[in-house]
Specification:
The protein is of the alpha/beta class and 199 residues long. It is built from 8 helices and 5 strands.
Length: 199
Amino acid sequence: MMNNTNIFWHKPGVNQKDRIILNEHKSCVLWFTGLSASGKSTLANELDKHLHSQSIRSYVLDGDNVRHGLNKDLGFSPEDRKENIRRVGEVARLFVDAGLLTITAFISPYLEDRNMVRSMFPQDEFIEVYVKCSVEECERRDPKGLYKMARTNQIKEFTGVSAPYEVSENPELIIETDKQSIEDSVLQLVDYLKTQGYL
């Protein structure tokens, strides 16, 4: 990694606190993690729509969308997954600084990688949301046909089939998408944000 001594941090004229006052809500990252087809993207976008309807500034960083641009040079090896998550963490940090409730939807299967991103933020600005769903239900949904391809070895290193998913011991929230509706899941998230003073 290049370490250039000619790069300096420029103090902004408008800071995060200024934006929080303008927005009348706090900013943070809601880090959605879970198996493929567990409902991360669906839930992230439904929450985003709900927040938008309440005039709350939010944005979704989605795993597939980010790989179309910022991370299109990365594959799915453990090393590339780590770099994928690191880059997203850095972008999310910029968005939080901009005053947004930033919602990410990434499998992010490794504890070490999620803890790396957590370490980028003050304690109250990172909310890990484990989108819990059994692999059987994820495979039953399988909207992209990925589990089927993984079972026939067309996809290597597929989380939940041929690669591990490491569950956090203490995520801030657990949303069980195989046991409750999307509407109830959004309400659970909004209630958490309200009771913790973000909204």
